[in-house]
Amino acid sequence: MKYQEVIESICREVKPFEGLGKQADYIPALARVNPDQFGICIHTVHGDVYSEGDADVPFSIQSISKVFSLAMALNLIGDRLWERVGKEPSGTSFNSLIQLEAERGKPRNPFINAGAIVVADILLEKLPNPEEDFISFIRELTGNPDINYNEEVARSEREKGYLNAAIANLLKYHDNIKGDIEEVLHFYFMLCSVEMNCKDLAAAFLAFADHRKHFSYGGVDLSSSQVKRINAIMQTCGFYDEAGEFSFLVGLPGKSGVGGGIAAVYPMRYSVVVWSPRLNQKGNSIMGMKALELLTTKTRESIF
Ligand code: GLU
Fold it and tell me: Which member of 50, 51, 65, 66 is catalytic?
């Protein structure tokens, strides 16, 4: 497959979508980002890397980090995780309180905020040095020792984090958070604040694309079946309440974030990351989704 040619033509064909939507602006650090950027990177299981556009520009990975924290939690407590977090799509917005209240503090899945906050609580309880251990895991996955948190982003998320604080309180009320709420929220916002570029993220997601290879990075050892299940949850829950639309248009497991990034995998073939800050109403990157739709259409490669 001539991926370089394919992504060059994608870059031309997403141009008409430039300027549509707007970037997340709930915190200053995200509002400041130049919204008119677009990057794409494909990393194949054979080790070939293809990229175009702003693929070297670091951005806030936001909710994409929920894939990494889920991987760490599964490594630490295995299937016991599913006693505290479900694995069904939520069909509601990522920060909804209503469903969490109706379902008595058991979040639908690990990719909505409530689920990721429970996962953060588990990591805080089980890891000797949670912040260092998490970032070393990502550095190992990518092979880039310079990846880091953005503490300014984490701090302003906390300052504006009223809804996430409400979620954490509801979880605590239902005894689904063991630790101190402030510490759990701080760690959750740190997880969201990690900055990576398309190339780093594609390198990190390759480990999820190729689940025949033993998954062992930074002390996280997952079986091939666990990696397969993480992909399954990406497929059904990775795009807020637009997971069905993404499946319909693109047909790859993946995870998006409000920083405008989308990471996806074609199992056994490649990982792909697109980034463009302007979002649609559901919080997914407009040019990013279009680019991935074009990718699976042009290559006629999709899991379906
Ligand atoms: N830090 C954001 C929040 O918790 C994450 C949003 C996202 O990317 O979904 O609200």
Answer: 66
* pLDDT bracket for residue 212 (50, 70, 90): confident
**128: buried, middle or exposed (CB in 10 Å: 19+, 13-18, 0-12)?**
exposed
Report the chain's mean pLDDT, rounded to a whole number: 96
Closest residue by CA, ligand 1 atom 9: 63
Average pLDDT over residues 218-226: 95
Report the pLDDT value the prediction gives residue 257, as an integer from 0 to 100: 97
Cα(15) to centroid(ligand 1), Å: 27
d(CA 81, CA 6): 40
Q: Contact, 229 vs 285, CB < 8 A? A: no
Decide if 50 is catalytic: no
Q: Report the separation in Å between the CA atom of 116 and the middle of ligand 1, taken as the mean of its atom positions.
A: 10
The contacts of residue 235 (CB under 8 Å, 6+ apart) are 243, 247, 252, 253, 254, 303
Q: Which of 60, 63, 69, 193 is catalytic?
A: 63
Does the pTM surpass 0.85? The reply is yes
pLDDT, one tens digit per residue, over 159-205 is 999 999 999 999 999 999 999 999 999 999 999 999 999 999 999 99
